[in-house]
Amino acid sequence: MRRSHAVLGRCRAGREPYPPRVVLLAAALSLVPPSATARELDARFAGAGADLRPGTAESLLEELTSLGLVRVARREGQDTRHVVTTLGRQYADPSLDGAAKSRLVDLEALRTDLLSTISHELRTPLTAIRTSAGLLLDPASRPTEAQRRQLLDAIARNGERMQRLVGDILELSRFRSGSVSLQLRRFRAVALAEGTLGLVAPLATPRGQRLELAADVGPDHAVYGDHRRLEQALLNLVSNAQTFAPDGGTVKVRVSERGEDTAWAVTDAGPGIPPEDQERLFERFFVGRNDRSAPREGVGLGLPTALAIAQAHDGTIEVDSAPGRGSTFTLVVPTHGPAAPKGDEP
Fold it and tell me: For 37-95, what is each residue's pLDDT tens digit?
């Protein structure tokens, strides 16, 4: 327990450069091995010269568990025995500074969020598929031909939804690893926008939404890039805009030329994005506070994927938004293609 004595001593002397709660967590982590219940941890703190308030040891173990630094080993009557995880052992390494410890915890939080998000998003379509298949296979169920078609459509639609989720994850991983080859060719910028709006129209029509296209370039203005990928990036932006635009609202796409770049600006009259959320928009699996209350099928991969596609073309995505005045996302890429083309030219 020598290390815990030193940690607590620095805390009492005011020399520890971390908040007292962080020091207390570090001390608790050092006192857990080889295992500990809340009562045992409380006794070990007492043996190290610290007199904790009742319930503190239990709350420390709960917090360490939520951070992934310890885990429940087994339950012993009213007590729960904990052991330190691999992450906890890394975190307790005295050679790591505060920044490194923080990164470890952030990585564990990202892993936990990833598993939670994927599990949540897969559960709904899987339930729909199992329910529909069960009704079709149940000998006591005698669906009409129309009902049978409806059940089969539900299976197909939810299967596609799961496929999109897995595809988005793999696609973003490939872009981040630099293993994607762009299939470059020339195509018309305005036609790309027209085709994208056509894909979103079936979703907008039932909500009475209007999709408008404006062009500051001629219909023959051509861009050299990966048509399929850029269509995917623009589709992600337009789909987001359509999701958050109000019923009866308008989604506008404007195609323009900026010096050596071509830009597609997508504007909606939705609720807008708070500044604190804008800083995290392109993080994987991030869902803003406005997004959580909106009907959606995404998991926070659309914008990161769109940005990865833009960056693969030496381009970017610009954001202009504020609460109460909607949002504009602009896809910008070099008109004549990336400086170092990837993939085979046609």
Answer: 999 999 999 888 887 888 899 989 988 887 778 888 888 878 889 998 887 887 777 77
**326 in Cβ contact with 249 (< 8 Å):** no
Distance CA 291, CA 321 (A): 14
Q: What is the pTM of this model?
A: 0.56
Q: How far is CA 217 from the centre of its chain?
A: 35
Give the chain's domain count: 3
Cα(78)–Cα(220) distance, integer angstroms: 75
Alpha-helix residue ranges (DSSP H) falling in 178-271: 189-204, 227-244
Query: Cis before residue 34, ω within 30 degrees of 0?
Result: yes
Parallel, antiparallel or unpaired: strands 79-84 and 70-76: antiparallel
What's the domain range around 329?
Answer: 184-334
Classify residue 248 by its DSSP letter. T
Q: Would the CA dihedral through 271, 272, 275, 279 be positive or negative?
A: positive
- Report yes or no on 11 lying in a domain: yes
- Residue 225 pLDDT more than 60? yes
| 249-259 burial code (b ≥16 CB/10 A, e <16) | bbbbbbbbbee
Three-state DSSP class for residue 317:
strand
Residue 233 tokens, joined: 């990036």
* CB distance 314 to 225 below 8 Å: no
- Give domain status of residue 149, yes or no: yes
Alpha-carbon distance of 299 to 124, in angstroms, equals: 13
